[in-house]
Model the fold of this input.
Amino acid sequence: MASSTIQRAGIVGIPPLSIMELLATPEFKIFDLDEPQGKIDIETASPFLPRVYCGILRTVIANSLAIRPDIIYIDTGSGKCDCAVHTATVLEDMLPDTRIVRTKNQDSIDFGTPLCKTRMNLLEKMAAITATVQNTAPYQELTSCKPTAGFWGVPPRDFSILNLFPDTTHIYGWARCMENKTPDNLDLELHYNPDIPTVFFAQSFCAKTALARHLAGKHPHGLYLDCDVTAGNSAKAKIQAFLELSNI
Done:
């Protein structure tokens, strides 16, 4: 444990609101282990997780090795993924001095999704949505814009692909569940707008690739896309061509 009175708390997924309210005190410094934390080499996770695990969970391992939090709250419920269950076991053996707390977020109170529907640079919008995990206060109202494109899925590890979308892009899928603080809300995750061109995204090797591809097949103007750790030129070219052909 750290000698300081301030404890380093890592979070994986979206812990229940009760946990986030507990951490929202001066006694804790929160690290979102799903997101790259500085220049930490993701390859440090290779001895602990196979490469067929998604880039997000491999990032969790790499961050945990570098930061070595005092405590990690990891969502191992259906609002995250089955692989998180096994990642929690790996973390326990990997970091014997870190307390690993398994949580299951089954919160059902809707916080709303004002960011998902407002006009904003999509990269900045997604960053703001991921930041809401640490915010326990009610959201401010925002003006909704008329959508011209849709991004369905999870926050990508490589946010650079989001710069290709117009500011009038609405966000759907698990990222919308994330802002709503209900990660286990399947009905909300399944929602999309059939009237706008939509990219259905998931991290490579994530179980959500099945749902992303399925919904893209049902959508009258959908594109299925998956990327691993970083988005290469091929993935970006697919998005750009898709949006251009959609007159966006």
About this structure: Residues 114-245 form one domain. Residues 55-67 form the longest helix (13 residues). The first strand starts at residue 7 and ends at 12.
